[in-house]
């Protein structure tokens, strides 16, 4: 089913603050098989000049998709069973580390058809609770067969 | 907080040697738990085939994480990555056996930018398929 184009420009409410923890970073690093000590050991991270353990580059995927609430809106018409990931990009304004409290606001920036598929792009602006810009993420998902 | 690679010692066109990363079903289960992406196409063969996929496929973000690991291992500091984006051009099919699939990542310094930054192009393959395209990162070197 074609996605509802009226959703382009729609933004989520700010997410509840997400508290980045050492335990979650360690779990994520283990899941991607990365043994870098700066993800696991505060002293190693501090020796490398970071205030605490830092997050791997793709870690923001864990919390940035507060846009999920938009994507789950039945009015959008997205069939999750047919969804695969199309594109992903992260712009980092500074590294994320344990202790950060982050808020995401997600905005649908584009919906388009490519062949038989529907593509929807969501930008998430991630800041600290104090408003410091931390990263911007761009997530394009593909609904297979959605345009047919 | 600095890359171990020095800008002055890097040349445009310089290749970053390839590395292999295994992905087995257990890795996808761990990644589902850690990331919160529990889409059954990444762990349930019956469901994956019912929606027209050849088998269970890896999370695109798992593949992106492996290429990210390749990048941060080269740069020497994960905090040195200032921009990182990919397009998922093909699926990584992960069979239910001891071998799983292999993702091979390589890179090249495509351009030297201002402020000691470089544009790195990444290539990720699994089997005969190029699984990432337009995979690029900007890295702050020392």
Automatic annotation (TrEMBL), chain A:
HAMAP family: UPF0336 (MF_00799). One of its GO terms (molecular function) is (3R)-hydroxyacyl-[acyl-carrier-protein] dehydratase activity. Residues 7-136 form the FAS1-like dehydratase domain. GO terms for biological process: fatty acid biosynthetic process. SUPFAM superfamilies: Thioesterase/thiol ester dehydrase-isomerase. It holds the Pfam family FAS1_DH_region. CDD domains: R_hydratase_like. InterPro entries: FAS1-like_DH_region, HadA-like, HotDog_dom_sf, UPF0336/Enoyl-CoA_hydratase. Signal peptide: none annotated. This is UPF0336 protein HDA43_002570. Belongs to the UPF0336 family.
Automatic annotation (TrEMBL), chain B:
One of its GO terms (biological process) is fatty acid biosynthetic process. InterPro entries: Fatty_acid_synthase (IPR003965), HotDog_dom_sf (IPR029069), MaoC-like_dom (IPR002539). CDD domains: SAV4209_like. It holds the Pfam family MaoC_dehydratas. One of its GO terms (molecular function) is fatty acid synthase activity. One of its GO terms (cellular component) is fatty acid synthase complex. Coiled coil: none annotated. It comes from the Bacteria. Residues 14-107 form the MaoC-like domain. SUPFAM superfamilies: Thioesterase/thiol ester dehydrase-isomerase. Belongs to the enoyl-CoA hydratase/isomerase family. This is Acyl dehydratase. It comes from Streptosporangium sandarakinum. The lineage of its organism: Bacteria, Bacillati, Actinomycetota, Actinomycetes, Streptosporangiales.
């Amino acid at each position: 089913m074609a996605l509802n184009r009226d959703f382009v420009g729609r933004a989520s409410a700010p997410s509840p603050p997400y508290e980045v923890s050492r335990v979650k970073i360690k779990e994520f690093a283990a899941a991607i098989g990365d043994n870098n000590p700066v993800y696991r050991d505060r002293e190693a991270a501090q020796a490398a000049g970071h205030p605490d353990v830092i997050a791997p580059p793709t870690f923001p995927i864990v919390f940035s998709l507060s846009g999920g609430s938009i994507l789950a809106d039945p009015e959008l018409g997205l069939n999750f069973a047919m969804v695969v990931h199309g594109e992903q990009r992260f712009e980092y304004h500074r590294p994320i580390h344990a202790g950060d409290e982050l808020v995401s606001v997600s905005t649908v920036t584009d919906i388009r058809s490519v062949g038989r598929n529907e593509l929807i792009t969501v930008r998430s602006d991630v800041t600290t609770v104090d408003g410091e810009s931390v990263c911007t993420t761009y997530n394009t998902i593909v609904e297979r067969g959605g345009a047919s | 907080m600095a890359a171990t690679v020095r800008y002055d010692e890097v040349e445009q066109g310089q290749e970053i040697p390839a590395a292999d990363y295994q992905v087995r079903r257990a890795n996808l289960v761990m990644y589902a738990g850690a990331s919160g992406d529990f889409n059954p196409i990444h762990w349930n063969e019956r469901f994956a085939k019912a929606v027209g996929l050849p088998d269970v496929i890896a999370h695109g973000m798992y593949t992106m994480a492996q290429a990210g690991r390749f990048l941060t291992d080269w740069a020497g500091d994960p905090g040195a990555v200032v921009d990182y984006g990919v397009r998922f051009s093909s699926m990584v099919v992960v069979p239910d056996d001891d071998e799983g699939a292999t993702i091979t990542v390589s890179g090249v310094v495509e351009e030297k930018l201002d402020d000691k930054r470089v544009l790195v192009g990444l290539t990720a393959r699994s089997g005969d398929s190029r699984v990432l395209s337009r995979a690029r990162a900007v890295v702050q070197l020392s």
